[in-house]
Amino acid sequence: MDDTIVALATALGEASIHVIRISGPQASKIINMCFSPKNKERWDRQENYTLYLGKFRDEDTIIDEVLISRMLAPSSFTGEDVIEISCHGGLFVARRVLETCLKKGARLAEAGEFTKRAFFNGKLDLVQAEAIIDLISAKNESSADLALAQLEGGLSSKVIELRENVLETLAFIEAGIDFPEDDVEELDREALSLRLERGIKLAEDLLQGSKTGKILHDGLLTVIVGQPNVGKSSLLNALMREERAIVTDIPGTTRDEIREFVNIGGILLQLVDTAGIRESRDLVERMGIERTWKAIEKAELILLIIQAGENLSSEEQKIIDLYSDRVIVLMNKVDILTDIPHITRLRNEVWLPFSVQREVGFDRLEEEIRKRVYQGSSKQLKEPLLSNIRQISALRSGLGSLKNARASLEAGIPWDILSIDVREALADLSEISGQNVQESLLEEIFTRFCIGK
Amino acid sequence: MEYQAGSYDVIVVGAGHAGCEAALAAARLECETLLITLNLDSIAHMPCNPSLGGPAKGHLVREIDALGGQMGIVGDETSLQVRMLNTGKGPAVHALRVQSDKQAYAHRMRDVLLAHPRLTIIQALVENIKVEAGQLKGVVTRTGAYFKAKNVVLTSGTYLRGRIIIGPAMYEGGPNGQQTAVNLPQSLKDLGLELGRFKTGTPPRIHRRSVDFTKFKIQPGDEIPWRYSFMPTESVFWGRDTKKQVPCWLGYTTTHTHEIIRENLYRAPLYSGEIEGIGPRYCPSIEDKVVRFADRPAHQIFLEPEGWESDEIYIAGLSTSMPEDVQYEILRSIPGLEKVKLLRPGYAIEYDYVKPHQLSLSLEVRKIPGLFTAGQLNGTSGYEEAAAQGLLAGINAALRAKEKDPFIVRRSEGYLGVLVDDLVNKGVKEPYRLMTSRAEYRLILRQDNADLRLTERGRQIGLVNDERWQRFTQKREDLDKVKELWHETVFSPLNQEFQEVLSSVHSTPVKGGLSAQELIRRPEISVHELKKLISGLADYEEEVLQEAEIETKYAGYIDKQWAEIERFAKMEERLLPRNIQYEEIMGLSTEGRQRLQEVYPINLGQASRISGVTPADISVLMVFLEQKRRGMKNDAS
Fold it and tell me: Relative to the CA of B538, which of A429, B16, B298, B449 has its CA 20 to 30 Å away?
């Protein structure tokens, strides 16, 4: 009867291990679609309370090596089949695991929904209960304005435009239904079809522009460039060291470059290793430099490393001139200078004092990258970004509802039924913007239409 | 001085649409019932439109009827014209609208009340609700009569501190020249009830012979003699001969009308700050429409006859509280009304209402057990909303008198449930009007199946009489038979007649066999086609066939809504203890806690619908309930 829900069980932040919990009758079925256990025989025996090691995959792409624990109904936290996936590699991998589960038919759990299920199945552990209440009340304090806060910037206008479109469409339908004798302008089927198409287009654009903000999903395509021996490799190594962590490597995405994935402040960088740039007569080296220029051209973020205190080479100058909107200039080895160099900005590029050796400037780099991603100033981010997985899930579901409405319209289904899908779409979009459906609808009807006896 | 004036099981104060249903329900449930009205000649009066129904409201009338209420029957009997609205928009929103003979409606309703042996009616002004040591004792009238009862239903409409406004003229008064109740609101406040103030309005009435009807577009009734009641009713005026129905007339205001209004806006009480009450957005006055929709060249108006023989005409769409001289000017600027004779001016009325969050879902005032409120007094608008609440309150007062559990209608069972649930949990910010878009299970709450949803419940209470029950059970059996028949009847592709019927409605021909059930799921196929193919269907009532068609055609969608209802049903089953102390529950949000304390929901489902209560609050409540349950177990062991 009930559907299967999934959510990140660990806190939403950087941690070395994240746990994704999935609960409901479809839990095993969903996991079977994306988990290849090391010991398949044991997995197939469906042993309860057992840990399984294996690969978690989205179709052919291996996302991570994970540990899965299986607790079958009724002996689980919620009283339903519960599977918990422990993955390493930070939020990025956790998101991909979560997204894969959603793709395979799970639904993103609402706040407190696991607790709710545990409650209805008489499973609530009283020791846990107190902790749960603490958690929820903390959420109560902080979450009120969260939905709207996340909508700052470019995103809000896009989502709001989409929601307005759907709200208006529903208002037309509902005003026509509830006030048939008033002088209400009614939508005919063609006009409704146009409105739905527009909504679908907007939603698709948003999803494309986002794809977990595409960046959070695929990573921000980043090149590290600079003259030979300026410290590119050291930076790369520094970024990939420690818990900053290699997330995963996806071989074969490009033929001759190796791409590394690095998580900086919750944002995934898809790092492309490049050859040093300088004038060269060596044929092989020139081919490498050619490739570097191509990579720079494609890149969404360029980390240009220069030697602090030295003049810009013509190549460095050229990069700044051409791509100033996505360049961060790292003045490396700033620690060996006696004076902090005076920075003259050429265009829109950002200059950071830096030292790979002494770990100077990493925090500011992280901050700068975050700033660019969230304020939408990187090339890719001209389109607004939907960062939150819940928002994406809501948007996707809203898009689905709009498509259902379009299908119903084409099949000649009457308005009372068709309106259900449009209303669901509005509910989904309202979840993103944190607004009330019923109140907005009435407000829209009464503002837009002159109704009254 | 007070005198003992008698003792009753249930007293109903007010004889508008809520009061009539409440009094009849209580009397029919075998309670000795007293109905007190300000004016015996104003029982069941329609102070506004001479009509019943429309979307959601028509649904309500059918629900009232399905439960054994009176409005549907009297509405049918006194109808001047019937129209089924929204027929092109799907079965869930088909909505019956009936023009009524205002006088006839009131007279017939009064006759029904007077005829009931357990119902006493008296004309008096109630000034005091008597409560001693928290116990409801009865009511006291202005003339000192003390009527005792442990159960009182208040349905005093817009009469609490009523104030009429026509331009600069303002005076204390209820609708239609009635006196107003001044002391009762104070009595309610003294009992700790929180009151609010609303405003509503009504248009001018004019003389039929002063209208040039050639300038209006005629709007006749339908050719099908629709009725509200599931009982075999018919109009006393036109019987079943729909050609005899009285038409309405459609016209428009002009830019000249709007100029007049704009020029006189400084005299409009609505804009001069004279009106403090909040008016409904869905029922704006003409001055409001002209201001808010300034670019509109014309606004639609309907001329509605107030009766079969009456010369009075109601102008729907022209509600106003402008000064009387301006009303004349406005009217004369409308094509066809150049020579208009005004019978009664339009007016605005302000009145006190009881903030409905103080009620339980049985419409009982939580602070004063035994006191029920219903109708416009609860901040709603509309005859139908009032009658529905009156019925519910009357039933619950009677059940309480008999020490039985209250009768509560769920949102998934009826618009009556949506209405009361909204009132209590969401509160009102303007006079509340029911709309189909307020219902989340609209596909299930259809007007055609109101009896299937509610008549059995009405029978359980004891309000559905044998005759109605017999008709109902017959219908239900027939419905099953028809559905069974459709399931069993399979048409062969070789059946010539079958293929001909298909092609007659441009339906795709079939190659294999097809059952009637599958066939009628096609959008272009209706019962009409099936009747040609299955002779046995002629034995069944049209109503039954229509019902079977809707249930079969839309089964997929309907089942989906049922699944959703079931998903939420668990929440309704988790009861919250009566003595729950919200201030002691850790982890609730500040607003959530406050709203929970205000409304005191009976179960988790209701709690989740209270505005201001978050899903996280609900989780906290669940944890709390579970703790409590375990705690109790421990205590017991």
Answer: B449
Reading the block at residue B421, the tokens are 């649930």
Q: Computed from CA positions of residues B380, B386, B391, B397, in that sequence, does the dihedral angle turn out positive or negative?
A: positive
Distance, in Å, from the CA atom of B55 to the CA atom of B63, rounded to the nearest integer, reads: 13
CATH number of A5-124: 3.30.1360.120
CA distance A118 to B622: 10
B344 touches chain A (CB under 8 A): no
User: What stretch of H or E contains B202?
Assistant: strand B195-202
- Sheet strand arrangement including B195-202: B169-172, B163-166, B347-354, B195-202
Examine residue A228 and say whether the peptide bond preceding it is cis (omega within 30 degrees of 0): no
Q: For residues A341, A342, A347 and A349, what is the CA-based torsion angle, rounded to 10 degrees? A: 40
Query: What distance in Å separates the CA atoms of residue B131 and residue B147, rounded to the nearest whole number?
Result: 12
A307: three-class secondary structure by DSSP:
strand
Tell me how close the Cα of A167 comes to any Cα of chain B, in angstroms: 13
Distance CA B110, CA B17 (A): 11
Interface check for A237 against chain B (CB to CB < 8 A): the answer is no
Q: How many CB atoms lie within 10 A of CB A40?
A: 11
Q: Does domain A128-209+387-434 have CATH number 2.20.25.110?
A: no
Is B627 at the interface with chain A, CB within 8 A? yes
The average confidence (pLDDT) of chain A is 77
What is the predicted pLDDT for the residue at B636? 45
Element (H, E) at B5: strand B3-13
State how far residue A177 is from chain B, nearest Cα, in angstroms: 7
A250 shares contact with chain B (CB less than 8 Å): no
The answer for residues whose C-beta is within 8 angstroms of residue A38's C-beta and 6 or more apart is A52, A53, A54
C-alpha span between A229 and A307 (Å, rounded)? 10
- Residues A402-412 have pLDDT tens digits of 999 999 999 88
Tell me if chain A has a CB within 8 Å of the CB of B569: no
Q: Is the pLDDT confidence value at A165 over 90?
A: yes
Non-local CB neighbours of A438 within 8 Å, separated by 6+ positions: B437, B438
Quick one: pLDDT band at residue A246, thresholds 50, 70, 90? very low
Domain boundaries, chain A: 5-124, 128-209+387-434, 216-373
Phi, psi of A279 (to 5 degrees): -70, 135
How confident is the model over A382-400, as a mean pLDDT?
Answer: 68
Question: CA torsion A214→A219→A224→A225, rounded to 10°?
Answer: -30
* Stretch 2-31 of chain A: residues touching chain B, C-beta under 8 Å: 2
Check if B48 contacts A (Cβ < 8 Å). yes
Of residues B618 and B139, the one with the higher pLDDT is B139
Judged by CB atoms within 8 Å, which residues 577-616 of B form the interface with A?
586-589, 592, 614-616
Q: Please write down the HEC assignment for all residues of B83-127.
A: EEECCCCCHHHCEEEEEECHHHHHHHHHHHHHHCCCEEEEECCEE
**End-to-end alpha carbon distance in chain A:** 45
CA B237 to chain centroid = 25
Average pLDDT over residues B465-493: 96
Q: Name the closest residue on chain A to residue B90, using Cα atoms.
A: A414
Fold classification of A216-373 (topology level) = Rossmann fold (3.40.50)
Comparing C-alpha atoms, which of B423, B366, B352, B363 is closest to residue B391? B363
Is beta strand B342-344 parallel, antiparallel or unpaired with respect to B51-53?
Answer: unpaired
CA distance B438 to B417: 11
Tracing tokens 């469906």 back to the chain, one arrives at A46
> Residues A31, A20: contact at Cβ < 8 Å?
no
**φ and ψ at B37, to 5 degrees?**
-125, 150
Given an 8 Å threshold on Cβ–Cβ distance, is B289 in contact with A450?
A: yes
- Please name the residue that has the structure tokens 């979307």: B55
User: Taking a C-beta distance cutoff of 8 angstroms, is the pair B108, B77 a contact?
Assistant: yes
